[in-house]
Each structure stands twice: as C-alpha cells, then as structure tokens.
Amino acid sequence: SQTIHQWPATLVQPVGSPLSLECTVEGTSNPNLYWYRQAAGRGLQLLFYSVGIGQISSEVPQNLSASRPQDRQFILSSKKLLLSDSGFYLCAWKGGTGDVYTEAFFGQGTRLTVV
Amino acid sequence: DQQVKQNSPSLSVQEGRISILNCDYTNSMFDYFLWYKKYPAEGPTFLISISSIKDKNEDGRFTVFLNKSAKHLSLHIVPSQPGDSAVYFCAASYSGNTPLVFGKGTRLSVIA
Questions:
Q1: CA-to-CA distance for A112 and A98, rounded, in angstroms?
Q2: Which of B64, B84, B87 minimizes the C-alpha distance to B17?
Q3: Average pLDDT of chain B?
Q4: Is A70 within 8 Å of A23 (Cβ atoms)?
Q5: Cis peptide before A8 (omega within 30 of 0)
Q6: Minimal CA–CA distance to A26: which of A53, A50, A2, A51?
Q7: Are residues B43 and A101, on separate chains, in Cβ contact within 8 Å?
Q8: Beta-carbon contacts of residue A44 (< 8 Å; ≥ 6 apart)
Q9: Partner residue facing B44 (CB), from A6, A100, A106
Q10: Which pLDDT tens digit goes with each residue over B78-101?
Q11: Environment class of residue B66 by beta-carbon count within 10 Å: exposed (0-12), middle (13-18) or buried (19+)?
C-alpha cells in the first residue's frame, strides 16, 4: 500500500533562517506531488506541484521554492523565512498519468511558526 | 480569484440530524469534485468524490450531490455524529494532471 511521510511535524524558526521540509512517498511510482499551505483562517492554498523529476510548477510567487530530486521525494525550501511564511504545510500525492479521476492523499503536515 | 467557494465558515448541527455542507465553483472546466475532512494538526483525509457525469454519489452516511447547471455541490451527512466534528473542504479538478483546487473549508460541529 502507498504511504506518505512528511517531517518534521512542528518547527519553530527565526525570521531570516533557512527552511527545508521533506516529503517522501512509498508504494507508488511517478506520482504527482504537491505542496499546500493552510494559513490561519484560510483554505488550502496550492504552492507547488510536480508531475516528474525536476519538473516544478509554482502557483504563487513567494519566498519559497520546491525541488524534486527523486521520483518520490519532494522538498520545500526557503533561503530566508518571513513572518508571513508561518502556517501549516501539507505534502500530497496523486496517481500520475492514467489515474485522472482519483483523490490526492495527504501527509500529516508540518506546523511552521516563524518568530 | 476563488474558483471553489465554501461560503459558510461554520455549521452547528444536533447529533442524529442531517448536516448539509455547500460548495460553489466558477470554473466550468472542473469535472471531478471531492470532499475532504480535516482534524486539527492533521492532514486532510478523503471522504467522497463525484465526477461530472453523475449527479449523486453515496457512501454510507455520506452523499454528495452535484448540480452542474448551478455549479453547486453539497455533502449530506446522515445521521450526524459527534465524531464528524471537523473542518470539511470541498475540492475540484479537471481532466489530466491538474492539481486539486480547494475551498476555504466549513467547520462542522455536531452537538451531542
């Protein structure tokens, strides 16, 4: 069966510090991978998605970047965090080509607080 | 531009009664719709979905209705239980590898 791992669960970082959140998926190949953010009082905002290794689409211009160095690994990064980067970050995967009408599966999320 | 809208931030329902959560969308290209349930500090979990070729899909206590002409869908939970208390997100996508677009969520409180 497929599983998704996301870490760390919580993170407190000072303004201006770097960020690296990692997400890995097991039990599937060539998944579509996503990073979402849930800010206080807001819905789930899509930040980045990837349909393959090295392919990243950015939905919202911001202080963050994403990379997909391996098929089942998705990394969210920042060189210098801002207070506005605080939020609940969620990694998700969905079946790739051929699995059009399927749900996305989410990790447990990372609560990031920038102080 | 919000393509998926959940206009009710919260809903309170008595245990055993019906909960109805609503969702509207603006993008007529959407052809697949989903509902997710989310507890605090956890990732959303998939509940039920419907494709645009149907107008109703049922799974146990959960039923989703789709009205394409009105660009509206709803989730019915019958009977509501205290464990159903959570935030419910509506999501939509269209054919291909497009990401899910989510609404802002509705917080459901089921009162015993």
A1: 34
A2: B84
A3: 95
A4: no
A5: yes
A6: A2
A7: no
A8: A36, A37, A38, A90, B44, B89, B91, B102, B105
A9: A106
A10: 999 999 999 999 999 987 668 999
A11: buried
* DSSP-derived 3-state class of residue A83: helix
- Number of helices followed by number of strands (H, E) in chain B: 0, 11
Q: Would you give the DSSP letter of residue B83? A: G
Q: What confidence tens digit (pLDDT) does each residue in A93-114 have?
A: 998 655 567 889 999 999 999 9
pLDDT of residue A61: 66
For tokens 């990073």, name the residue: A35
Give the torsion sign (CA, A66, A69, A70, A71): positive
From A18, A49, A43, select the one nearest A112 (Cα to Cα).
Answer: A18
> A34, A93, A100, A111: which to substitute to probe chain B, counting the most B Cβ within 10 Å?
A100
Whether residue A20 contacts residue A75, with contact meaning beta carbons closer than 8 Å, is answered with yes
Residue A26: exposure state from Cβ atoms within 10 A (0-12, 13-18, ≥19): exposed
Identity of the residue in B43, B95, B102 whose CB atom sits nearest the CB atom of A100: B95
* Dihedral sign computed on CA atoms, order B69, B73, B78, B80: negative
User: In the numeric block, which tokens belong to residue B31?
Assistant: 């052809």
